[in-house]
């Protein structure tokens, strides 16, 4: 590995110097701010030192040739298998000495082919990661395994690379905590509203069927009433005129919280006005098929009439990334300004949360972690979410 230092007034210039001299594949091992020497140095701007490195031989053998080696190995094995197959048959195609052939041998050769193919796929899949020092590469693969989009995973790892020095990059624990820092920095978070007596906050919850809107509304209503001593009202926007409101009504009766049903957008604005003496109004909406745009625009009229302070789009953490983006695209006309990820307890991996939150640029408000009201909900705090995504632990 060739390592060299580059000093320039800005990080950009120093990095450009490094790329000019060491080439595009060079990586930054570390950066340092240098104070100008002498008394007068205090009055001069600091310089930036970049430690750049290029793995001359290794770059070749890892980048191009990780693939080349695997291809070469596959070619060799195919030839060997072909030669052995030929041995089984005479020139006129008749089968000869069949029993001589060793099946265990074929099996182990096939195993090797399989392994070589796996290596090849891994290599082609994560081509960019070959350039990272080993601890960072492990972190990158961990992100990708959690279903974080490759491009985003690369962005996170490159940020860590710029932040830590060459020595620090070998420290697995330090790299892990820096990855978690970077994740928490690239996401946005919103704080829960605090009830203040002079204003009524209106919060609406939208999203596809069955994601947990009603359960989340019940959890928040209970928390605000019990722990914050707030005056809470519930409104269910029933755009369908079906009995889907029963569930919330039952909860409202038990918790002794007033609940109304808005069957029209006019009902909605009237009911919001009716509850102006409350601290918080939580609006539950009946889930509709987001693929039917007329349902979404109908719901939009209810939301507009409520004129909410916050519109939380509830996405189930168990659904696919593609589905989450589809839901977002169809609901975005209702101007959601918060994201809730529900059913985190049932999700296999949580990288999608990062992908969707990063792509939509919406702040996260809550995650929900089970069916229990009001326990299974947590405020989305930067470190909580980052740890959850990267280490799959709820701290
Ligand atoms: N495991 C798990 N289940 C949840 C969570 N939140 C809600 N559920 C369950 O998901 C199911 C649907 O929840 P609802 O709150 O009725 O969902 P909804 O979005 O109101 O559904 P619709 O009103 O039909 O659109 C219920 O069985 C809930 O108990 C969660 O965080 N984790
Ligand atoms: Mg519901």
TrEMBL record:
<dbReference type="GO" id="GO:0015031">
    <property type="term" value="P:protein transport"/>
</dbReference>
<keyword id="KW-0472">Membrane</keyword>
<feature type="coiled-coil region">
    <location>
        <begin position="67"/>
        <end position="123"/>
    </location>
</feature>
<comment type="similarity">
    <text>Belongs to the GTP-binding SRP family.</text>
</comment>
<dbReference type="GO" id="GO:0005047">
    <property type="term" value="F:signal recognition particle binding"/>
</dbReference>
<dbReference type="GO" id="GO:0003924">
    <property type="term" value="F:GTPase activity"/>
</dbReference>
<dbReference type="InterPro" id="IPR020006">
    <property type="entry name" value="FlhF"/>
</dbReference>
<dbReference type="InterPro" id="IPR003593">
    <property type="entry name" value="AAA+_ATPase"/>
</dbReference>
<dbReference type="GO" id="GO:0005886">
    <property type="term" value="C:plasma membrane"/>
</dbReference>
<dbReference type="GO" id="GO:0005525">
    <property type="term" value="F:GTP binding"/>
</dbReference>
<dbReference type="Pfam" id="PF00448">
    <property type="entry name" value="SRP54"/>
</dbReference>
<keyword id="KW-0966">Cell projection</keyword>
<protein>
    <recommendedName>
        <fullName>Flagellar biosynthesis protein FlhF</fullName>
    </recommendedName>
</protein>
<keyword id="KW-1003">Cell membrane</keyword>
<feature type="domain" description="AAA+ ATPase">
    <location>
        <begin position="199"/>
        <end position="341"/>
    </location>
</feature>
<keyword id="KW-0813">Transport</keyword>
<keyword id="KW-0969">Cilium</keyword>
<feature type="domain" description="SRP54-type proteins GTP-binding">
    <location>
        <begin position="200"/>
        <end position="391"/>
    </location>
</feature>
<keyword id="KW-0342">GTP-binding</keyword>
<dbReference type="InterPro" id="IPR027417">
    <property type="entry name" value="P-loop_NTPase"/>
</dbReference>
<keyword id="KW-0175">Coiled coil</keyword>
<comment type="function">
    <text>Necessary for flagellar biosynthesis. May be involved in translocation of the flagellum.</text>
</comment>
<keyword id="KW-0653">Protein transport</keyword>
<dbReference type="GO" id="GO:0044781">
    <property type="term" value="P:bacterial-type flagellum organization"/>
</dbReference>
<dbReference type="GO" id="GO:0006614">
    <property type="term" value="P:SRP-dependent cotranslational protein targeting to membrane"/>
</dbReference>
<dbReference type="InterPro" id="IPR000897">
    <property type="entry name" value="SRP54_GTPase_dom"/>
</dbReference>
<keyword id="KW-1005">Bacterial flagellum biogenesis</keyword>
<keyword id="KW-1006">Bacterial flagellum protein export</keyword>
<keyword id="KW-0282">Flagellum</keyword>
<keyword id="KW-0547">Nucleotide-binding</keyword>
<dbReference type="InterPro" id="IPR047040">
    <property type="entry name" value="FlhF__GTPase_dom"/>
</dbReference>
